[in-house]
Amino acid sequence: KTLADLYKLKKQKIDYIIALNESWELQIPLSTLKKHNIQRLHLPTPDYLSPSLEEILKACYFIKVSTAPKF
C-alpha cells in the first residue's frame, strides 16, 4: 500500500506481484513499481467474485515466466 511496503517486498527479493484489486484500490502506481523493477499483473476482480478462467490462465503464465530460471 505504501512505499515502505514496497521496500519490504524488495528486501524479501519479491519482483513480481499479481494484484486482484479493482483499479481504484491500487495504491502504488505501475510507474513506481517499474522504477523498482517490480512487475505487476493486474487482474481486476470485484469483491465476492472470482477471476475468470482466462484470467487464471494469464496468472499461471505470469507465474511460470516469472519463476523460470534466468540465464
Question: What can be said about this structure in brief?
Answer:
This protein has 71 residues and is an alpha+beta fold.
Please, could you describe this protein's structure?
With 71 residues, the protein is α+β, with helices and mostly antiparallel strands. Helices cover 42% and strands 11% of the residues. It has 3 helices and 2 strands, in the order H-E-H-E-H. The protein has helices spanning 3-11, 30-35, 53-67; strands at residues 16-19, 39-42. Strands 1-2 form a two-stranded parallel ribbon. The longest helix has 15 residues, at 53-67. The radius of gyration is 13 Å and the shape is flat. The termini are far apart.
Write the layout of secondary structure elements.
Blueprint: H1 3-11, E1 16-19, H2 30-35, E2 39-42, H3 53-67
Parallel strand pairs: 1-2
Instruction: Write the H/E string, N to C.
Output: HEHEH
Global shape: flat
Instruction: State which percent range the strand residues make up.
Output: 5-15%
Number of helices: 3
Low-confidence stretches: none
Mean pLDDT: 92
* Sequence of strands across the biggest β-sheet: 1-2
Q: N- to C-terminal separation?
A: 32 Å
Radius of gyration: 13 Å
Largest sheet: 2 strands, parallel
Q: Residue share in helices? A: 40-55%
Count of beta strands? 2
Structural class: alpha+beta
Descriptors:
single chain; 71 residues; alpha+beta; two-stranded parallel sheet; 3 helices; 2 strands; 42% helix
